[in-house]
Amino acid sequence: MADEQKPEGSQVPPPAGGEAAKPAPPKPAAAPAPPKPPAVMAATPWDSDLAREIKERFGDRVGETSTYLGQNFIVAKPDAAVSLLEYLKLEADFDYLVDITAVDWPKRPERFDVVYVVYSFARNERVRIKTYIPEGFKLETAVGVHLTANWLEREVFDMFGIEFEGHPDLRRILMPEEWQGYPLRKDYGILQQDDRWVRENLGIESGQ
Amino acid sequence: MPDATFLDSTELVLNMGPQHPSTHGVLRVILKLDGEKVLGTDCVIGYLHRGVEKIAENRTYAQFNPYVDRMDYVAAISNGLGYCLAVEKLLNVEAPPRAQVVRVILTELNRIASHLLWLGTHALDIGAITPVFYCLREREEALKIFEKYCGARLTTHAFRIGGLLYETYEGFEREVRDFCKMFVPKVDEYEELLTNNRIWKARLIGVGILSAEECKEYGVTGPVLRAAGVKWDLRKAQPYSGYEKYDFEIPTRANGDTYDRYVVRMQEMRQAVRIMEQAVEAIPEGPIMGKVGKVIKPPVGEAYVSIEAPKGELGYYVVSDGSTQPYRCRVRPPSFVNLQALDRMIRGGLVADVVAVIGTLDIVLGEIDR
């Protein structure tokens, strides 16, 4: 996934083997440096009946089905996320939508991860559905599948500015309604505020 | 035709809060009423929003640890446990056995403290003045143990990533045992005041019903779900911190009304004592800190870890980019999700029941707004 986020990634020197022809300057101390940890998540394929069924059913609308630290996740195409939720709910007993959240990767073309966590009481199993969307993309709402999604999607909208098509009541939920900006985006500074809102509503220059 | 009154209709929009004693914080509920009947509600939240998730991205893993105490501040230890477990998962380490047992004792003690505050304030909302004094009296004993253990009573910062910072103090076991012995008769005392009290029953039975199906639809967890008859508790379903070693039960009820939620929480306090009694006899010797470096730097990856907090499922979704700061730390607060069901619970009820239903949800606004 988002390996390009790693600032060190581009600065890693090419492997020493490639420079064998050139008489390298004597720097043997640098050679036995500990191997860099991989800059991508070391997830392994998730092999299960459910994963196979989903692959069969959705074809190329789902990407990898993987496991990391014993936790399973499915990467779905943006237009497949809600149908996947529905499929999981109706045919695999994943009847409890635990959470919806997002992660911002500003340098990636698909800027946001939107993550759904679902749980099945019957199977005692938890699965994450991840989908990558570019800025401005409108995801389908999950309110029709799980009522919980209402407030959870409102929070994602409030914090990241991700809109959900067909949401019954897409308003800000934690921030004031007229607030400008989406606080959990990476380009929103930690001390940043909506100066105009603060001035007009609190009568002060700064909330800090 | 009768004269029109100065009110054009029989419907009235009433604003409750944000400064209202029975909203347990700064919650604003807009009620649409027809006489005494509630036609609908809208919750306005966010008054306590401090941007906890944003702060996490600008602190190191260890620096962020004390902030989580300030979300559900009446169950700070549970918050801290969830966060530590999430980061430990990312690091792929486990706290040593001794630390795990001490964690369980303190977390269960915190569950009792949290439920006591709920019981006292809930009873006060309904109109019973006495229980709050009783509850705060016993809660004080629990807070004293926290204070002796880590120096703080409320926002304790009791646990560290990888285990514990503090060894138990001299006499810790004795005081926990004394608390357990003292506390069970006190629960009987509260129950004598309330459980068969006619007024208490009249105010709670049949009020704010949420069925098991509705709970799942709304993602409601914790005692509210169990009062609707679903025997589900993360300590049993997906044990963490060695909960599988203790013998305890998951109390459930069938009707899913306010009275059942009261009964479930009372039973849970008794079960918490049971867990503490077993844990305090089985504190192993050994280190209290796992193999965690001075600089916490989890490999690139992500994990969702959740625990059974006093209010329900408390989850942390932490994304690491391999640096010393969380790339993203999402908190899945039980109160936030549970509060969404308020409208379903109160619609068609009476305005006086709004207070009972807010109380029975056991919300903490610090956690809802984060």
Structure description:
Chain A has 208 residues and is an alpha/beta fold. Chain A has four helices and eight strands, in the order E-H-E-E-H-E-E-E-E-H-E-H. Residues 1-30 of chain A have low confidence and may be disordered. Chain A has a six-stranded mixed beta sheet with strand order 1-2-3-6-5-4. A two-stranded parallel sheet of chain A has the order 7-8. By secondary structure, chain B is α+β, with helices and mostly antiparallel strands. Chain B has one domain (52-337, 350-369): Cytochrome-c3 Hydrogenase, chain B (Orthogonal Bundle). Chain B is 48% helix and 15% strand. In chain B, strand 4 and strand 5 form a beta hairpin. At the A-B interface, strand 4 and helix 3 of A face helix 1, helix 8, strand 8, strand 9 and strand 10 of B.
Task: Please describe the structure with a list of short key phrases separated by commas or semicolons.
heterodimer; A: 208 residues; alpha/beta; six-stranded mixed beta sheet; two-stranded parallel sheet; 4 helices; 20% helix; 22% strand; globular; disordered N terminus; B: 370 residues; alpha+beta; Cytochrome-c3 Hydrogenase, chain B; three-stranded antiparallel beta sheet; 10 strands; 48% helix
Quick structural overview:
The complex is a heterodimer of chains A (208) and B (370). Chain A is of the alpha/beta class.
Please give the structural blueprint.
The complex is a heterodimer of chains A (208) and B (370).
Chain A: E1 44-45, H1 49-58, E2 62-68, E3 71-76, H2 81-92, E4 96-104, E5 112-120, E6 125-133, E7 139-140, H3 149-160, E8 164-165, H4 195-202
Parallel strand pairs in A: 3-6, 7-8
Antiparallel strand pairs in A: 1-2, 2-3, 4-5, 5-6
Chain B: E1 11-16, E2 19-20, E3 25-26, E4 28-34, E5 37-44, H1 52-57, H2 61-68, H3 76-91, H4 97-126, H5 130-150, E6 159-160, E7 163-164, H6 172-194, H7 198-204, H8 212-218, H9 223-227, H10 234-237, H11 258-280, E8 301-309, E9 312-320, E10 326-332, H12 334-339, H13 342-346, H14 351-361, H15 365-369
Antiparallel strand pairs in B: 1-4, 2-3, 4-5, 6-7, 8-9, 9-10
Helix pairs in contact in B: 2-3, 3-4, 4-5, 4-11, 4-14, 5-6, 6-11
